[in-house]
Amino acid sequence: NKKAFVELLFWKNSVAVYEMTKGYSSLQEGEGPARSRVPPWTPQEEQALQELYWKYKEVEGEDVIAAIMAHLPTPGRTRRQVVKQLVRM
């Protein structure tokens, strides 16, 4: 590729560098650096998160996020993911 030098002028993330070195469209689904992405929240999970937030937000002396995480129907979400989703909602 004679125009690859132009790509070197701009910052790249790990996925772009991998594709530049291995060939474009070389990343398959679930492979390489992109596989570490967080699974999206389903509407059911968002609904449960909202209900748990309204249930535990008024509790005095207790960590709201810890209480929500203990009662989430799908385990495996980190504290950061829960907080980020609450802020987004």
Automatic annotation (TrEMBL):
GO biological process, one term: replication fork arrest
GO cellular component, one term: replication fork protection complex
InterPro entries found in the cross-reference section: Timeless
Pfam families named in the record: HTH_TIMELESS
Secretion signal span: none
Gene Ontology molecular function: DNA binding
Protein name: TIM protein
Species annotation: Sakesphorus luctuosus
